[in-house]
Amino acid sequence: MNVPLWVAAPVLVVTGLAVRADVRTRRIPNLLTGPAVLLGLVAHLTFGGTAGLASAALGMAAAGGLLLPGWLMGWMGAGDVKLMAAVGAWLGFPLGVFAALATLMAGGVIALIVAAQRGALKKSVWNAVVLGSWAVARGPQSTPPPVTTGIRFPFAPAVLAGSLIALWVRL
Description:
α1 (5-25) packs across α2, α2 (30-72) crosses α3 (78-91) and α2 (30-72) crosses α4 (95-117). This protein has helices at 5-25, 30-72, 78-91, 95-117, 121-137, 156-170. The protein has one domain (5-170). The chain is built from 6 helices and no strands. One of its GO terms (molecular function) is aspartic-type endopeptidase activity. Residues 17-112 form the Prepilin type IV endopeptidase peptidase domain.
């Protein structure tokens, strides 16, 4: 099944505008993500009825939900989560989930590139191993997560890349 233009075009416009804002200001405005979510839900209701709305709502919740732990841990901004929720609202379920997973992979690749550029690749990889071990072994413990390198980068380009991959797979 192909992704209709009325879905693909808004996803590309919203993520493109978010990349521009995030790279320039390190913020993704609510004035972009809020209307994008709302319009995605309304568009799916209009063109797909209640089943379309349900798909959009589930896509929004699942895609945004996959990035939510990153915000809760302080690894990304709330705008990144809201942008992914908007993409999920437009792509629906399950394609929004696929886009979120592709986004996380693209973010990992970008993080490796940024770490290498800043001379922190070895430390970043080691911290990822320690963090993975902490996440698996912590169980009911309430110990804080290990310290990261503190290197930050705009995440909207990863959302754009994940969205493009999802659209390419489905187009």
